[in-house]
Design goal:
9 helices, single chain, metalloprotease, hydrolase, 462 residues, 2 domains, alpha+beta, PmbA/TldD fold, TldD/PmbA_N, Metalloprotease PmbA, five-stranded mixed β-barrel
Length: 462
C-alpha cells in the first residue's frame, strides 16, 4: 500500500510481544509441572492471546467499532491412554489449578483409547540457536479507531463514487489483529509463535428493486504494506458489482467451467477435507484408500510449503510440536499422502504428516497463463466467480452448488449469469481439470490460480 501513514509499524519499545510470550511460556511450564504432580503420564498445554481492532461503516456512517483482547489456556492430560481436557481464560493461580484438576478428573473417568497420547518425542521440532524462525509473520500496525474509520470511509466512498449505478452499500470494514501462541508438552517441547493479519473490505449494491446486484472485494495480508490501497479496494468492489447487472440464466447442459481463482481454492479445500485423517478413519470420505492413486491429470501438482516468508500458515511445527516439512500432496497427478495428526495416523496405522491443526501453505502448480489467456483458450463456457450453498457430499464426492459468474463466448466475457447450479462428482472433476492459471489469489494459505474443469453439468433456465 502506498499511503505512508498506513504503513506505520509499532515504534521501538512499544512492542511487548516477546515478553508476553515469555509470560505464556512460564504459565505453560507451571501447568505441565502440576499435571505431572497429579500423576499424568503425559500432558500438553496451549496458551493463546489475541488483540484486535475492527470497524464497520455503511453509507458514510460508522456502524461498529470493536476492540478485542482474548486469551485462552487449554490443558490436556493423559493417564496412560485415558485423556482429559479443560480450558480457562482466567490466569489466577486458583483458576489454573482448577483447570488442571478438572482435566485430570475427566481423564480418570474416560475409557482407554489406544490412539490417544502425545505425538512421538522423536518427531518434535528442534529449535535452532535463537529460537524457531518467525517467517516474517509479525508486523504490528499502529492503527487507532479514528484512522481505521477514515480508511473504511475512504474505501466505501471510492466505491460509491466510481460508478453511478452503485445505489447502495453493504458497508466497508477495516480490521487488524495480532496473535501470540505457546504450545508446550511433557516431552520438553516448547514452541512460540506470533503473527499479525490486517484486512480492508467493501461490499456494494448496484441497481434498483429486484434488479439489484451485490458484490465486493477485500484485501488481507500479514503486513499493512502488502494491502491494496483502501480506495483501490472500493473501486474494485464497484467494478465487480456493476459488472453483475442485468444477469441472464443459461440453458441446462454440459460445458467447460472455469473457476476464478478466488473460488477455485474451494476445490482444493474439498480435496484436503477428503484426505484428512478424521474423515478417513471414520470412513466418511470419497477418497478412502486413495493414497498412491491417480486423481488428477499427469501434469497436476500441489506442494505443501510451511516455510514461506509471510505465508498465512507458515510454521516450523504443527499443533502437536511435530516438525513440519516441505512435501508434495499431489505429484504428477497422484495423491502422495494423507493429511494427518498423530491421533488420526494411529487410528489408520500410519505416521503423522505434521498436519495436526491443518495444512501449511498449499501451492497448486500452474500450467497456463492468466485469466484472459484461459478465457481465450476456453472459447465458450462458464466463468464462475461466486459459489453458494453447501451441496457437497463428503462421502460420495457428489458436488452441486449455486453459482454466479459470466458466460464466455469467443473467449470474451459476454454477459453475467446467475440463478444457476454447477454439478458433478469431485473425483470426476479432479480428473477433468484441463488447466490451472498463474493468476494466483494471494489472500489465502491455499495458493492457486483459476481452475478449468473440462466438463460439468450446469443447470439453468431450461
Amino acid at each position: 500500500m502506498k499511503d505512508k501513514p498506513l504503513n506505520a509499524v509499532a515504534p521501538v519499545g512499544a512492542d511487548d510481544s516477546l515478553s508476553r510470550l515469555d509470560h505464556l511460556a512460564g504459565i505453560a511450564q507451571r501447568l505441565l509441572d502440576r499435571c505431572r504432580e497429579r500423576g499424568a503420564s503425559q500432558a500438553e498445554v496451549s496458551c493463546n492471546e489475541e488483540r484486535g481492532l475492527s470497524v464497520d461503516v455503511r453509507m458514510g456512517a460508522v456502524e461498529t467499532v470493536e476492540s478485542t483482547r482474548d486469551r485462552g489456556i487449554a490443558v490436556t492430560v493423559y493417564f496412560g491412554h485415558r485423556k482429559g481436557s479443560a480450558s480457562t481464560a482466567d490466569l489466577r493461580e486458583e483458576s489454573l489449578d482448577a483447570t488442571v484438576e478438572q482435566a485430570c478428573a475427566i481423564a480418570r473417568y474416560t475409557e482407554d483409547d489406544p490412539a490417544a497420547g502425545l505425538a512421538d518425542a522423536a518427531l518434535m521440532a528442534r529449535a535452532p540457536a535463537g529460537g524457531f524462525p518467525g517467517f516474517d509473520a509479525w508486523h504490528p500496525w499502529v492503527l487507532d479507531a479514528d484512522r481505521a474509520i477514515d480508511l473504511a470511509l475512504a474505501c466505501e466512498a471510492a466505491g460509491r463514487d466510481s460508478d453511478a449505478r452503485i445505489a447502495n452499500s453493504d458497508g466497508a470494514s477495516v480490521g487488524s489483529s495480532a496473535a501470540l501462541g505457546v504450545y508446550a508438552n511433557s516431552h520438553g517441547f516448547v514452541g512460540r509463535e506470533r503473527s499479525t493479519q490486517h484486512t480492508i473490505g467493501c461490499a456494494l449494491i448496484a441497481g434498483q428493486g429486484e434488479a439489484m446486484q451485490r458484490d465486493g472485494w477485500y484485501t488481507t495480508a500479514l503486513a499493512a504494506e502488502d494491502l491494496e490501497a483502501a480506495a483501490a479496494v472500493g473501486r474494485h468492489a464497484a467494478e465487480r458489482t456493476a459488472a453483475r447487472l442485468q444477469p441472464r440464466s443459461i440453458a441446462t447442459g454440459q460445458m467447460p467451467v472455469l473457476f476464478a481463482a478466488e473460488v477455485a481454492r474451494s476445490l482444493v479445500g474439498h480435496l484436503v477435507g477428503a484426505v484428512s485423517g478424521g474423515a478417513l478413519y471414520r470412513k466418511a470420505s470419497f477418497l478412502v484408500d486413495a493414497a498412491g492413486t491417480r486423481l488428477f491429470p499427469d501434469w497436476f501438482g500441489i506442494e505443501e510449503l510451511p516455510f514461506l516468508a509471510r505465508g498465512f500458515r507458515s510454521a516450523a511445527f504443527d499443533a502437536e510440536g511435530v516438525a513440519t516439512r516441505e512435501a508434495p500432496l499431489v505429484r504428477d497427478g497422484v495423491l502422495q499422502r494423507y493429511v494427518l495428526g498423530s491421533y488420526s495416523a494411529r487410528k489408520l496405522g500410519l505416521a503423522t504428516t505434521a498436519n495436526a491443526g491443518g495444512v501449511h501453505n498449499l501451492q497448486v502448480v500452474a500450467n497456463a497463463g492468466g485469466l484472459q489467456d484461459m478465457l481465450h483458450g476456453m472459447r465458450r463456457g462458464l466463468l464462475v466467480t461466486e459459489l453458494m450453498g453447501q451441496g457437497v457430499n463428503a462421502v460420495t464426492g457428489d458436488y452441486s452448488r449455486g453459482a454466479a459468474g459470466f458466460w464466455i463466448e469467443d473467449g470474451q466475457l459476454a454477459y453475467p449469469v446467475d440463478g444457476i447450479t454447477v454439478a458433478g462428482n469431485l473425483k470426476a472433476m479432479f480428473g477433468a481439470i484441463e488447466a490451472v492459471g498463474n493468476d494466483v489469489d494471494p489472500r489465502s494459505h491455499v495458493r492457486t490460480g483459476s481452475i478449468l474443469v473440462g466438463g460439468m453439468t450446469v443447470a439453468g433456465a431450461g
